[in-house]
Amino acid sequence: MGIEVVVEGLTKSFGKQNIWQDVTLTLPAGEVSVMLGPSGTGKTVFLKSLIGLLKPEHGRVLINGVDMVNGSEKDIYETRKLFGLMFQDGALFGSMNLFDNVAFPLREHSRKKESEIRRIVMERMEMVGLVGAEGKLPGEISGGMRKRAGLARALVLDPQIVLCDEPDSGLDPVRTAYLSQLLIDLNAQIDATMLIVTHNLDIAATVPDNMGMLFLRNLVTFGPREVLLTSSEPVIAQFLGGRREGPIGMSEEKDAATLAMEQTNSRGLRPDGPRTVVPQLEPSPGMPVRQGALRRRERVLGMLGQLPDAARTAITQSYSAPAGGVRP
Ligand SMILES: Nc1ncnc2c1ncn2[C@@H]1O[C@H](COP(=O)(O)OP(=O)(O)OP(=O)(O)O)[C@@H](O)[C@H]1O
């Protein structure tokens, strides 16, 4: 089962540039979470801080009792082995075929025999639908295949926490839909805690159990998917609606005058009614039941009283619907 990741009061700056401050959230064990945010709000910096590659100046990241910010280098190094990382471009070695790329972490970090390495690599290649392509070089395959190879490589060391940085970037909508299903199927199979950074609204709407958003150096919110999907918070509604109107501008924040003019001009034209919450993806037929989804159901039903009305209604409806949601 995946491991809970507890983030407490995390603040990161580069020199005088503060990236975000006082970020506090918990990635529940074995659940899938998504972090949204306009470009440049520090989502990648956040992922790197979770694995201890970047050092925030304040706060803690607790994983199995190890603080990835202030812990000893030895503890951080050991804990990092629990992670599987999938970078935006797959980050494959161009001169190695897919088999060797996927086998790389096993050859570097384990003492397994080649026969065992072969078994694991082929199993992961099958998980991501790449059997038959193992002899190809990264330059000979499509972007979508490269991403899936990156995902296979992220999985070879049996990670308990999987971080995916914009797994959809450069993919067409159909490939993105397949990738969304693949992420849910993987979660069903390995029960790892997953955090996906994305701008993709379809992934945000259909994949995660939980969602958060970074904006203007703060975590706007983090919680069950229904909280964000029904939120009337202007920045969240604008982002999830993919609209120009709202506080997010081309270079992150609009000035007050532009915002006021926009609100006057658009008054009455674009009512912000409650948005519909589409059902979350379920594992494909034949896949195991997602244990994270079962745990999430208990967790979220236990916190209903603390949630806004719209989210509470959406959660109650999704768990009482005969199809979709998690079957009891
Ligand atoms: N090592 C570094 N040194 C200095 N500044 C950095 C470093 N890494 C990132 N930054 C800065 O931190 C900010 C956030 O970058 P980051 O890549 O995390 O954004 P992001 O939200 O992932 O963006 P995008 O969605 O466009 O990928 C940027 O202004 C970037 O220039």
UniProtKB/TrEMBL annotation:
Keywords: ATP-binding, Nucleotide-binding, Transport. The keyword Nucleotide-binding applies. Residues 265-290 are annotated as: Disordered. One of its GO terms (molecular function) is ATP hydrolysis activity. Pfam families: ABC_tran. The keyword rRNA-binding does not apply. InterPro entries: AAA+_ATPase, ABC_transporter-like_ATP-bd, ABC_transporter-like_CS, P-loop_NTPase. Residues 5-241 form the ABC transporter domain. This is ATP-binding cassette domain-containing protein.
